[in-house]
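Just scan my protein:

——
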Amino acid sequence: MKRVVEPRARTGQARASTETGQRYTVTQLAERAGVSTASIKFYLREGLLRVGDLRADKRAYYDDGHLWRLLLIRSLRELARLSIEQVRKLVATLDAALARPNARFSRGKQKTFELVAAAVDALAAPHKLRAGGAHAKLRAHVHAKLRARGVVVRRDSATLDSLVDALRGLHVFQPELDVDVLDVYLDHLLPLAEAEVLANQARILAGPESALIGALVGTVLFEPLIVALRRLAHEHFVRQLYAGRTR
């Protein structure tokens, strides 16, 4: 079962660059992260990456925290194909946890869950199909279906809205579809999600930062793998279907 590999260096905006011992010029940082210096400057301007240490040699130096943040941003952009705005929300959520680890998120597991929930919501795609009461009506049906299957869903979940939008889009091509179509997917995805969470429970319960990094890497970056495998499986079974008809 998959396990998320965490960096040794913390990723917080407030971390001083001299703490890690390893220092990089912007060119060295770009080479290590596999991005261009122009991209680094863009992320600096956008506030996705904190500024480097300017105290020596009249140039900026960067640390392993910068490197990990760049690798995370690159993965979110290139593998998960998230928009800059989605990455910005995720980075802001992560920095909020790191800036006040012993204050804002220290009152039990519920606060850590709220932090992870905020990260999950930041991943939700913009809603393009939401309109009038049609969305709200279907949303209520989907929410009821999930509850009937024992799935606890926040009523303000942005991901729930994404699911409703997906169903509304499918209705254009298959009007006969209703919320019962979700049962087939829930039958397979609930055991998968449970196994993944249980495999990483120590990391998830270790604290807000660990839980959030696990949510980002374990959820976002593994989704392209799942999607790619599903597409290959579809191709395989369609091929088998046509092969069976030609016998």
Remarks:
- The radius of gyration is 21 Å.
- The first helix runs from residue 26 to 33.
- Residues 79-245 form one domain.
